[in-house]
Amino acid sequence: MAADRTASAPTTLTQATGATRGTVGESTLRPDGTLKVTGEFAYSSDLWHEDMLWGFTLRSPYAHAAIRSIDTAGALAVPGVYAVMTHDDLPAGTHYGLEIHDQPVLAKDRVRFHGEPVAIVAADHPETARRAAARIVVEYEELPLVVDEATATAPDAPLLHPGRRDHHASHVPHPNIVHRQPIRRGDVAAARARADVVVRRDYEVGMQDQAFLGPESGLAVPAEDGGVDLYIATQWLHVDRDQLAPVLGLPADKVRLTLSGVGGAFGAREDLSMQAHACLLALRTGKPVKIVYNRYESFFGHVHRHPAKLTYEHGASRDGTLLYVQCRIVLDGGAYASSSPAVVGNAASLSIGPYVVENVDVEAIALYSNNPPCGAMRGFGAVQACFAYEAQMDAVAAELGLDPVEFRQRNAMSQGATMPTGQLVDSPAPVAELLRRVKALPMPPERAWEAAGGPVDVRALPGGLSNTTHGEAVVRGVGYAVGIKNVGFSEGFDDYSTARIRLEVIGGEPVALVHTAMAEVGQGGVTVHAQIARTELGVDRVTLHPADTRVGSAGSTSASRQTYMTGGAVKHACEAVRAEVLRRGRERFGAAHPAWAEPGRLRLADGKVVTDGGEVIGDLAGILGDGAIDLEREFRHRPTEPFDLRTGQGFGHVQYSFCAHRAVVEVDTELGLVKVVELAAAQDVGKAINPLSVVGQIHGGSTQGLGLAVMEEIVVSRDGARVRNPSFTDYLIPTILDTPAMPVEVLELADDHAPYGLRGVGEAPTLSSTPAVVAAIRAATGLPLRRVPVRPEHLTGT
């Protein structure tokens, strides 16, 4: 096990000396960081091509309606329009999807959500394309809506996907249920009979948007070989290609994707948005076609976090031991499946939290509905569950008269514990220690105006920037939470990543070229891969090849997996290159030094071959000469297996990550305004490859969880299932003024199964930050607050 390493955020950030180079374990600045903050970075929306056209999508104004007719004559008559396409114009496949191919490229007989694509237009100017789309006449007939579990499973409920054929269909009790996953362990009824305290409550989580700042955009260029080259902001180049090829009627090798600059993702770029539309228009017109969504379109163009309704019952003995947990989780997947089956698996398997509970009865389902499609978002099913189970832990602790942190620590899992799925936790699980550390951190200073006898700076108060209060009704609260998140793809998915490493001498200096298909969406692979190459190959100069489909798949930049998986692939490929260097060196110089016969004693450092005693016995320039070593390798984590569809038992996840938070808030109880004063975190990362980036990920995830706690929600009308706030005017996200101080404690407890012992970082802080903030608001106000986001009216009762 690696030595424990702790750093506060300021200390960690100070370690960055300004260097853009570094090896594993050093804080390294991003090579694209300066370009991004100065506005010089090229995002996908900046793409340009000579003689290109602009694409635009016509979307449905209804959430559920039959399409009776589509008349495109008016659009085709607009000067500058090159093509108009509907479902009837598709050349090949008509549907796509991540797990279930249930989503039409363009709606045919009916639309199933507000904003569904119905037709696409290509024109010589974006405004021309928009004006032409407005002249397309679509005759709709509205149909009954499915908006919740009651309307989805009613005897006369409209079937949103009648006759669906997929491997999930036989395991669900109703066609409008996408997937169902129970978890059964122990005897809940017997445990309930022994319990001294039973707490049963309902919870609700609103629909959160990923709210990335770079809208969906890309450029499709028809190629001379009949194929198409797509330059795109995405999270998974190869899965995009594999969905596109059947739709375009092309073999996969004629659909070539190159990653363009990505302005954030957080799960929303896992699904296709404008990719198929741009390619179809490019192939139809024979010209490059660019599509850039505006912000309004973006809210309709990607999936969101599943809203959830959760019912939890916890039973405990008087000594503070959890005896059982029973829960039911209902996730609204919206009109199409996207990744709902996997989200259900996560929600169910992680529904109890990082606690030891012998008796468990869980059911998680996802629905089809006419609400906006939902899929991947940072935390992926575990966020919704964490809000509920952490509220329950506070409630049970209160019933027992125990400190909420102590109660959690009494029941906290550690290495060797068994998950409700029967899986052994075989790597460090320092849950009690994480809680101890956040609780031990110094508290932020008390309110300055109280110490001074009057207001000092109203900007420090809830709503203070609007001069709404002078602190008359402001109270402080403190709350704690901890969460558990899986890392990597689960349930038997063949999770692998590929890396190609080329090592050669240029200008007398060894240079490594790293080529992967990893989508850099802000997670920091652009530093991590170079750090690994420098560490393994002992070279200073490392270049990253643009990510594209000319190399094997790197999988999705999601599930906190890229440093583990593609970092592991880079390490594996570098090891193969190093072995080849030593083999060639042995062939050429083996007689000159006996150490060449013992490759296990040799390493590469500063462009030299060095013994474990530090003796230089060769250099890369002499070994490689004018040649190069160019090798590609795949990396896989240990295999997982699907959860049993009756009991939920199985080795479903490769790794778990843990994060704990302490939130300090101040609430104006008269105005219903909340200010998060501090959001402290402690997280085990296994090994911090780039400590600077690790702290940044924890800060980012914590802020996104704060947003869900107090402001972020897509509001959907029940009467028409229409999105009411598709703009950053009405959909609020935390700004720098909402983001509090965030001290961070970083632990490095190695996972022996992972490269360098590392553990995925980016998602875990999103789980526990939300319930910690809400727990602090409860402590300040005494209100139950069982729904997020918490709104002013929830605090004032008006």
Automatic annotation (TrEMBL):
EC number(s) from the headed UniProt entry: 1.17.1.4
One annotated GO molecular function: xanthine dehydrogenase activity
Broadest EC class assigned to this enzyme: oxidoreductase
Biased amino acid composition, Polar residues: 8-20
Pfam families: Ald_Xan_dh_C (PF01315), MoCoBD_1 (PF02738), MoCoBD_2 (PF20256)
SMART domains in UniProt: Ald_Xan_dh_C
Keyword vocabulary terms for this entry: Oxidoreductase
Domain Aldehyde oxidase/xanthine dehydrogenase a/b hammerhead: 38-144
Protein name: Xanthine dehydrogenase subunit D
Originating species: Streptomyces asiaticus subsp. ignotus
Name of the gene: pucD
